[in-house]
Amino acid sequence: MLNFFEDDLNLIYDNTKGILFDENDKTFFLTGGTGFFGIWIIMSFLFVNRKLKLNSKMIVLTRDKKKFLLKHGWIEDYREISFLEGDISSFEFIENNIDYIIHAATEASIKLNDEKPLVMFETIVLGTQRILEFARIKKVKSFLLTSSGAVYGKQPSDIEKISEDYIGAPVTSDAKSMYGEGKRMAELLCATYHKLFNLPVKVARCYAFIGPFLELNSHFAAGNFIKNLLNNEDIIIEGDGTPYRSYMYSADLTIWLWTILIKGKNNSPYNVGSSNAISIEELADLISKKDDSSQTKVIIKTKKSNIPALRYVPDVDKAMNELNLRIYTDLEACLEKTISFNKNILNISK
Q: CA-to-CA distance for 152 and 255, rounded, in angstroms?
């Protein structure tokens, strides 16, 4: 598996070796290992750990190890990865020394947020409290929470990009706000543990991403459009196509997360994503052009109105200026790499 991603993993290595070179004989603890973020963290850890000969280890928390390995059986070939079975909100604390924790559990899920909002709340809030308590007991060197741009609530149409000092929030009278409010509470818990116990917490407010292992059957527009392309289907946009998003490639995301974990300021959130906005219609058009047969059409169901377009675009100057980060992969390459992966590895088109 790692051989397929050699170019991406070398990119991650080249841009993280300077911060990870002295992390010898350390133990990393990861939650959310089966998710999009988690699998990239695992792959990059294995690649950098071996290339730098760090002799470090990673423990991955999972509810079902067998199910995890059925999906990613190749991980069994790497002895530096071990598993702890348990639920994020109630897992048993282990005696191992832990140096770093990456808490990447609970990615955005509209289905879970709509159908089981209380489960979403428990997973985010109770899970974060549990892992923070674990981090406190282990006296970790750094703790990273993967939060979300959803903490800002709806982005005003007159604000082109949201920065970390924007004071906004989800609508509390709407049960669909559970994800965003849950992430806000998770951040607040991190701030509290930092204040009370001097825990070195780092927060990454993540936006939208494209890359291998992105779920194509979820609510992510980019994933849905790529699935349409691979299945030789027209791309159908139920709305008017005007909302703006921005997309960061998975390898770039991984560089940013490792850098924030090691070098980020404590209790000082960083937006993570691209600030290069593109409309949903433009994204669909771009993906449709990846069809060699030129058969894929973009169909927009809703007529455009005079209402200002919705936006979900971060200002990432803070991370770039403070941590010397940048965008390494342009959107064209993001799409080509993601489509190639799904054609060659997952065989989605068959």
A: 24
For the stretch 194-250, pLDDT in tens is 999 999 999 999 999 999 999 898 778 999 999 999 999 999 999 999 999 999 999
Overall CATH class of domain 2-211+247-275+316-328: alpha beta
Mean pLDDT of 125-144: 97
Sign for the pseudo-dihedral over CA of 335, 340, 342, 347? positive
Listing DSSP states for 311-344 in one string gives EE-B--HHHHHHH-----S-HHHHHHHHHHHIII
| 182 Cβ contact list (under 8 Å, min separation 6) | 106, 120, 121, 123, 124, 125
pLDDT at position 344: 85
* pLDDT at residue number 234: 95
For the whole prediction, is pTM greater than 0.85?
yes
Torsion sign across C-alpha atoms 90, 109, 327, 249: positive
Q: Average pLDDT in the 287-299 region?
A: 89
| Residue ranges covered by each domain of the chain | 2-211+247-275+316-328
Q: Determine contact, residues 348/216, Cβ cutoff 8 Å.
A: yes
* pLDDT tens digit sequence for 169-192: 999 998 888 899 999 999 999 999
Which residue, among 110, 102, 185, has the nearest Cα to 146 in the 3D structure?
Answer: 102
- Residues 126 and 67: their CA atoms lie apart, in Å, by 24
Letter string b/e over residues 310-349, b meaning 16 or more CB atoms within 10 A of that residue's CB: ebbbbbbebbbeebebebbbebeebbebbbebbeeeeebe
Q: Nearest-5° angle of CA 200, CA 205, CA 278?
A: 155
